[in-house]
């Protein structure tokens, strides 16, 4: 279904290879459909004991959704986006749900860039997931940088990160390392590049039924985590209860961490930072399906609002790095604006993800 997705079965393992290196494996609708089709075909296939999903290159596992496509399609009918945008998010979030509840070991080799939609196809549920990180892993949920919010189940997995780490990662969109990903509970095993040949042989030669145990035996310590070192400060500031309160708290701290964080926050969409805080807060009380349904309605509101279109224009299309956020400042974001983004778009019986459980 997609020239950028290659699938095969060997030695009891179903293999999915993302092969769109020039776009850092950014997901298109055809790619989402091809991955979904493979997972559905293998779900009840006795010849497939485990699934491995990886990239054809070490530069990126997956950098997210195809934001150029979002921009072009969203501008066509800016009030609601195009039917293809609607289909993309409905089918992508359905795939995220399928991955989370996959009944067989689901092994994601998160080499290189792993961001946004890449996290959505790697963060399987606890009964299935085997998330491998390497020296090259650069992980983030950077959506606020383009006027979006951490979707693809981000409201679920970020809200369950230790302490206030989820708020920090979602509101700032900062990039973290392999050691940080392990510390935050967003990865399971570290495989050093020095041992890459051994890892490749393990993934190729080990029967699917024994793959999880073999990966666990191969894993090594990832070293010190910068996130762990900053955890106390993150909890103190990002547990403040709102984005304005977080900023006020950071301003009382003269540390390098606080000053760098303030500089990052100053570049993000004020509205979407506040929406992200509310999203993670709400996500803590919802199951996976509930989080995805919330995000699906929110993404429609986001395209109606136009913030993501402006963010992609500034960061990707025109590359002037000067997005004109609306509102322009954090002080101008009201609670009414934030709550309006969470208003239902469809009746429950008509929600495009109503069948998820």
UniProtKB/TrEMBL annotation:
Task: Name any one GO molecular function.
Answer: 3-hydroxyisobutyryl-CoA hydrolase activity
Q: Which domain of life is it from?
A: Bacteria
**Enoyl-CoA hydratase/isomerase domain span:** 14-342
Record CDD domains:
crotonase-like
User: GO terms for biological process?
Assistant: L-valine catabolic process
Q: Which residues form the signal peptide?
A: none
The alphabetical list of record keywords is:
Hydrolase
Family annotation (Pfam families) = ECH_2
Under which name does UniProt file this protein? Enoyl-CoA hydratase/carnithine racemase
